[in-house]
Records
---
Amino acid sequence: MLETIRGRAAEFRAQLDGAARVQERLLLEIVHRHAGCEYGRRHGFGRITSAAEWARRVPIVRYENLRGDLDRMIHGERDVLLTGKLLAFEETGGSSGGRRLIPYTKHSLAAFRRGITVWLDDLYAGDPALASGTAYWSISPAGRARAVTAGGIPIGLESDLSYLGPALAGEIAQTLSVGPEVAALTDLGQWRMATCVQLAADERLTLISVWSPTFLLQLLEYMFAHGSQIAAAIPNPARAAYVAKVLARSLADPAALWPALRLISCWTHGSSGGFAARLASLFPRVTLQGKGLLATEALVSIPLRALPWPVLALESAYIELLDAGGAIRAATAAEAGGEYEILITNDSGLYRYGIGDRVRVHGFAGGAPLLEFVGRTGITSDLVGEKLDEAFVAAALRPLARGFAALAPEEKSYALLLDLSETSHEIAPELARRCDQQLRANPQYAYARDLGQLEAVRPVRCDDPLGRYLAWRLRTGQRLGDIKPPALIVDAAWRAAFT
């Protein structure tokens, strides 16, 4: 058990019935805290006394709408989008866009912490045996050097443990399977080897927490490909011999490395579903828990053991939902079965801000919606009016049951990108045909195919497409542990990356 957060999950569950009140109270705290900044004065934050008034006064924004204000903050100007001191900017990137810098303050970090501590308390209270061993935490990627903005503000937090606060970070630090010094390595090859050596050496591992399942799968593949080198670097001779024996086998039994492992936490929704299923097959006796939706901008939902889907993180950000018709409602007023884009209001100077993530509502826990991440808004392809979006494409690809499958636009058709190690030359055309049939559920796509405006989906088998995609996104500034496997790739540079 983590003593500093004991009882947090029970406190959170007690608030679920009054979810709307909790959300509105949080909103008004944020609004009044930042009423004196330039943006707050511009939109009359000081006169807002309810969520309804908030919705009338304040516009919906995207990153592009705030770019000028954020640039002033990047150059050191204060009290522009928020009141108070900035601790750092955190870097993020869209699936097809360049980098974005998101401000962090002590209040916005505290908001992350309020949700994370609920999850951790629920996790350890639900399975006390987790506390008997060590844990591997991967929150942000290796491979980037420390940097500052033109105004001298750090880019990136000093440590991933900054999200947890000093007391909890101290407790977590005592259980780490891979030491924090590894995260400071800027050479990706050195980081990968050091991570794998420390993981392989750890026979007490009970918990693995990563974001993308592809992140862990890539580490496992590296371990089995470099087994003798990794085993030779383990100081305990008995453990080294055992690891060498396990890694000499195929990747079919990585669970043998960690007999005490009880739980893997990672994304399981959207385009991560197929990769999560592969992890589950590799660790059949280990619980696979899906992550909630945690964006660089805010924590949106939290997985709890007793609930079938992650629940709205009531205390972390004020969440509104935008439906396909442009109507906006508070998250607590969502309709079961509805799909929405997330709008957040937080202590980072982001107000009614579209983060681009879409969710489906699977009912409620008390007054709080249960949310499934289904894809990204804004990632769309429209060659001749078919308007395919990522969530739809991800659903169309799911029945293909392959580890890697992604769609990318060509001149008059779509390429179905497949891993040649997973898909034979003989079966690839059939998968493309089935994909084409699934896409016909979109009437505009079906119409374009029937008219001959679009040709049939074409299979393209690639060598290590996941590795190629990760390398490509790293070159564009995305963080390794933060890269979701793609379902729809709209960047025209995909050909250079995959062929």
Note: Residues 1-376 form a domain with the Rossmann fold fold (CATH 3.40.50.12780).
---
Amino acid sequence: MAYQFQNPGKIRIRQRTADQPNFLDISGEDWKAIDGGVAFSIHWGELEIIDEVKEILKAFIAHRLSRQSVWGSFTSDGRLVTYISKSALAQKFPWSKLDVLSFLGQFAQEKDSNYVYAFNSLYEWCMRQHIDGFSRETLLCVKEYKIKRHKQYEKVFLSQTHVTPEQEHIIIEAINADFNRKDYPALLENVILQLCFELAPRPIQLYTLDVEDFKATKSPSGEIYYALNLPMAKKRANDRIEKRYRRISKQLGEKIALLLETKNPAYKEERFPLFTLQADSKARIPSPAFGKMVIDQLRNSGLPDGRPTLLRHHLAQSLADQGASAETIAEIMGHNSTLPARAYIAATPKIAAIKTRALGKNETYKSIMHMLLTGDIVDRTDTPEERFVKGMVGTQFIGGIGVCGLSANTACPKNPIYSCYTCHKFHPFPDGAHAEVKLQLQQQAQLFIDVAQKTRQLGNNRAVVQLEKTIEAVEHVMQRVEDSKGLKTI
């Protein structure tokens, strides 16, 4: 028997603001909603999908709209419906395992995993509803289907997202620039830029701010302190939005207060939007418009690649650089987990410097070792072979790098090669495999770094520090060898 969606006519949706409807009309073929000032729609009558599949998709979208934001439902699940309408799945049912895997294959080509997860949610939901035509075997195939994608927050690990001092100076100059404070649009744009610099809210959070969310508190001494009761974008239940008080600077607070003074008195009630495009308007600014404001101001200031996300990265990275915990960063940034916070902590310049020194790549460390850490450079033909230094570095055997100055009857209590380059009794050969030693030590250091990073103990890891000093000593020996040959070191 074909599945038939029992359409309730209306469904309760998550509201971001008091002026947003609590219910969405889904009785007809055109489902329309507005979220963040952006209009979304699905025109079922225009989709070339057989009725049985369309009924299943309608029921699924209605379920998703009642569980998550309108924005998330339409941009992810709604687009999945569009993809299905253009595929073979739209014209046949039930779907075989081959049909499903063939459909998922198009996302692998596009390197888009979001729709794989959306389809997984669709198939899993249909299984829970006991809809005929869906099998557990196919569901397992969908769950196991993998496409290559970047790990979450991988870019934070691979690059420093911190705003440079020069860029920060440009942003601060733009915030402090002279302009007509009575010019409402100019004042609005400046407030948004400074707010994004201080608190790094998402555009949707700016969209949901009401007049009542701006707080000015006067202390007994007469000092006025300003704060925003910032709505959380990802921390909310169906019936309410969680808010967090965030203190803002006096300069920014005074600008927002001036912005409210400039507004039409009729539109300054507590439940009215805090930010509107015009002083005599009560219409909220669409969420994407906030991002455009920031982009335009940064571009006009000389940062053509500047975006709101850059300022979010800057705040999170600044907190990490100052030693803030992952929990603190996650709370301030409004993250649902500490995963992105740990990415910022791992990318702090301090940790990056440790890595650089441990791998012997920093040029400044090549010139600080003026004192000799080893003995004189000697020729291998002038020393007996039994005195040659040999040993293992990691899994690599290395021999003939120099000669040990200890007497023949004295056994060295230290680990050969690892300790030799910092010992006065070690006399390196000019033709020794010092470059190979350096390479193997770097690989050992990287191994320790990888392990230490997972346990978040890189900063005080003694093994890494010891290898760092040894690599510096090897670099110093290589420098001395080249100098002794009268050659220019590369």
Note: Residues 149-160, 364-372 have pLDDT under 50 and may be disordered.
---
Amino acid sequence: MILRHLLSVLLLPFMVVIVVPRWLRGLSDSHTHWLRGTIGEWPLHVGAVALFLAGLALFLWCVALFATAGKGTLAPWDPTKRLVAVGPYRHVRNPMITGVGAMLGGQALVYSSWMLVAWFAGFIVVNHLYFLISEEPGLERRFGADYARYKAAVPRWIPSIKPWTET
């Protein structure tokens, strides 16, 4: 079971958050170094690291929920057996993507890299399209009316303050 989760994390988020950004940073030494030498440099870096760590914590929480509540992994080839609608999933339908996006945004700010900003933007666009075209229709087929109720009540990307409760 742990090997299944490790494999899915290594093949998907690890590539997106570690391998590709490292490769992109290596393509060009021309980083803009936003606010370098100004009073805003350290607050930007502290905020960026906090954003990355918050994203990492959210991502790890979601992976744990996929394993415990969903009885599956984040990988499309080994999906959850049960609908995960607990924890952060009570506020937003895609908190795992939000966590990965926060890690990418944090890196873009830490490294002051327009390439990483473009990678972050591309990640968001591709995931939005993937969810519309494949993920949500697949969840509707797998979980039927349960997912339809959940989808109607919980926003896709912008978290609601009030948590969803199944009635």
Note: The two ends are 32 Å apart (CA to CA).
---
Amino acid sequence: MQWLSNWGTLPGELGTGVVITAISTGGAVDSNTLLALRLMGVKTIYPVGGPLAVTPQTLATLAATPAYNCGGVSTTGSNISVQAPIYGQLADDTAVAIDNYIGTPGNLAINGAYNTTGGLDNDVYSAGANDSTTGPTTAGKTAFVVSDTDGLDPSVLGGVSFLDHIPFVLTPNTGLSATASGELTRLGVNQVIVVGGQLAVAPAVVTSIQGLGISVLRVAGNDQTDTAYQVAKLEGGSTTGNVGLGWVDSTVYVAQGATPYDALDASPLSAGWGELTAGVFNSPASILLTEGPTVGLGTYLTAALKQAGGGTGFGSGATSTVKILGGPSAVPPAQVTAIQQALG
């Protein structure tokens, strides 16, 4: 699970994308991975994860792979350059290794989101659960804290992490680990966004973070689809009064919610970095989740799309476009139809 720590911070720092490959002890690299590297014209790879996640044989294969120019038609005359793997003994330690790599955390001005009568607290965007009632009065140096075993809730955060250089700190869900506590102190953050409900990140974690003198905002829903919706409302919330990030969200992405891989890959797209319109990067766009390929959209995603289509979902104005992340096995045609109907 060492990929948990790489939602968007490192790609945002490097200005690059995310490619996931299957583990292979024999050194074979998935053909889709090789095709992606070729089409994107990748010349340098930054492996994330230890030798059990990305094996030395796999790295050797990649280092022997010709590098192509963007478009994948012509080679550069050199092989792909494979950098030293970024990892720690556990997923929590890998997150620290990434944080060390990127440097200073970014700032988010969301002090209005702590307002218990109308901000992210009080079940408006958040599930509450002993998070702070006030935050930094100005933009706060920010980190995400998430469970080291929960990939779904925070998988939709890649766009914010990418754009604003917000690092992830991982911890066991029952209590704040010494590793996480030390990392928050080292990073010098004064604001933490905890993502996920009390089963994902226990109240004891929040209490320990607050004990470090750090304000905590929890963003959570009743399941992964609802949490994604609450994150989208944070992203689209008005910057007036600092209750959100001001994303317009005329376009949103939808990924399947049974596994986090499609949403994880889309962090550059969510940040607006991966697509160009008239030579200009697109505006950032939130990622929403279905319940899963065999389950359906779920109550919360359906409600989110209906509200977004009507202009009362998250962000200013109505959402007019939904882009699907993943093929028909991830988001079946029937679900695409249901998405269209819900959006109106």
Note: Residues 117-124 have pLDDT under 50 and may be disordered.
